[in-house]
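Model it.
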Amino acid sequence: MKIIRLLTAFSLSTFILCICSGCASLPNVSDMILDAPAARGHLQIISSKGVLSPRKSMAVMEELKQSVDPTDVLERHTTVVESVTESPLTKGNRVDLLADGQAAYAAMFKAIKGARDHINLESYIFEDDETGRKFADLLLKKQSEGVQVNIIYDSLGSMKTPAAFFQRLEDGGIKVVGFNPLNPLSGRETWGLTHRDHRKILIIDGRVAIMGGINISKVYSSSPLKRKRNVAAPVHWRDTDIQIKGPAVAELQKLFLDTWMKQKGEKPTQRNYFPAPAEAGDTLVRVVGSTPGETNRIPFIVYVSAITFAEHTIHMTNSYFIPDDQIVKALSDAAGRGVDVKIILPGITDSKLAFHAQRYHYSGLLKSGVKIYEHGTSLLHAKTAVIDRVWSTVGSTNMDYLSLLSNDEVNAVMLGRDFAGEMEAMFAGDLANSRQVLWEEWEKRPYLPRIREWFVNLFVRWL
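Modeled.
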C-alpha cells in the first residue's frame, strides 16, 4: 500500500511539473555534429572593426592551433556551435579570471565605482545581508551621481529578500525588475514555475562585464581557511567569475536588454549601451546564452560537443552534477579513448537531494575511467571547464535538467592558451582540496545509499 501511494504521489508530481516545464527534451547533439558544415570557409570571427573575412578568420584560428597540441576542440567544435547559434566568436578580448567570491566582489566594486554612464546588474540571488547592502549602498550612490542603474533579480532565487529592500533601490531612482514573479497573474508574456533567470551578469558602461556563477550574497565573502584549520566558521561557497573587456561585452549587453524587454521592465533610460568596441586583449570569446523554448539548448550543445572533440584533457568543476545520458556517454567515451577526464564535484552541499542524485552517476563514470573528486573545504558552486589546455568556459550553467532545460543561463567560452593555463592552475588548486573517489572503495559501499540514490534519481528533472 505504501508503495502504491508513493507511486501515485510521484505520478501526480510528475504531471504537475510537466505542465509547469512543458516536459521539454534536450537536443540530439550527435545529429548536430554530423550535420555541421565543414570547418574551412565557414568560420567567422568578429573584431572591433567588424566581421573578419573567412580567410582572416581561419588565419586567426590557425595561429591559435599552432600554439597548442593538435585538437579538434578548436575547429570542428567551433563550427558545430556556430551552426546552432547567432552569437559570434569575438577577438580582441581581455579576460581576467576571478577565482573566488572575494576576488569577484573586489572587481565588481572597483568597476561600479568607475561607472560613468550606466550599470546593468542581473543576478539570480540578491540578498538583504551585509554583502547585499554594500552593493545596494554603492549602487544608490552611483545613481545619485547620474549613472543609470538597472537591476534584474529572479523572483524565486531572491524570494527571501524583503520587498522593502528593492523598494529602497527604486525610491533612489534605480530601475528594478523581478524576473518571472511567482504570481502567475503578473502579466508577463510567458510564465512557468521552473522558468528562472539563473544568470549572473554585471555590465559597466558597455565596456566591462563580470559574469559567472556568483550571486550577491555573503556566503561568497567568507574565507575557507578557517574550515581548513578546523575552526568553526560559516560554510564558504567556492565559485568562479570572469571579467571581460572587449567586443564580447556587447553580446552580454544584448542578453541583458533582451531579458529586460521580455520582462516588461520600464523602458531603459537612453544611455550609451553599445559604445564603439575597442580591442583590449588577445582572447577569443563567444558568449553563449539560453532561454527556455528554444529548439537548441546552446550551453548543452557546447558542453557535449566540446567533450566529444577533446583529445587530451577534460578538467571540469560543477556544482549540481545531474547529467543526462548524452553527457555521461561523452565523458565515458572520452576517457575510453585516453583523454584525462577529471571532474571535481561538491563534497559539501546545500541540497542533499542533488548530492544523492550526483552520486547516482559515479559507478558508470568510474568504471569507464573518469576520475571523480569531491571538494572538501568549501561548498563548490563553480561551473567551469578547461579542455585540451586551450578551450575554457565559465558561467552559470549547471549539469542538471533545470539549468539545461528551464533556466535562462549564460556561459562564456574562451579560446586561448594563456587563459586556459590560468584555468588549469585554478583547477589544480581545487584538486588539492578534494578527495578522489576510487572505484575499489565505491563498489564496496552499503546498499542503503545505493537505493537512496536510485530513488532520488527518479526526480532528476526537478532537482
